[in-house]
Amino acid sequence: MKQIYVGNLPYSSNEEDVRELFAQYGEVTSVKLINDRETGRPRGFGFVEMDDSSADSAIEALDGSEFGGRSLKVNEARPREQRPRREFN
Q: Which residues are CB-neighbours of 86 under 8 A, at least 6 positions away?
């Protein structure tokens, strides 16, 4: 399984829209769109999980393609970098 980063998503898109887009290239295991913790509004990116060969096909086909009037950024997700937690006084 590969985790795919999907960036520059239209804020109006939902998980079902993204699932349908990626399903053209194989079975989608999961879709997770990221929302702002404080406002709850979409942040315009998310993650899709697919098997390796389907993921490679989807990345190649969809990176730079237009979706909802925006040019998508699609690549293999990298592990999240550890960042120091912000402290609030």
A: none
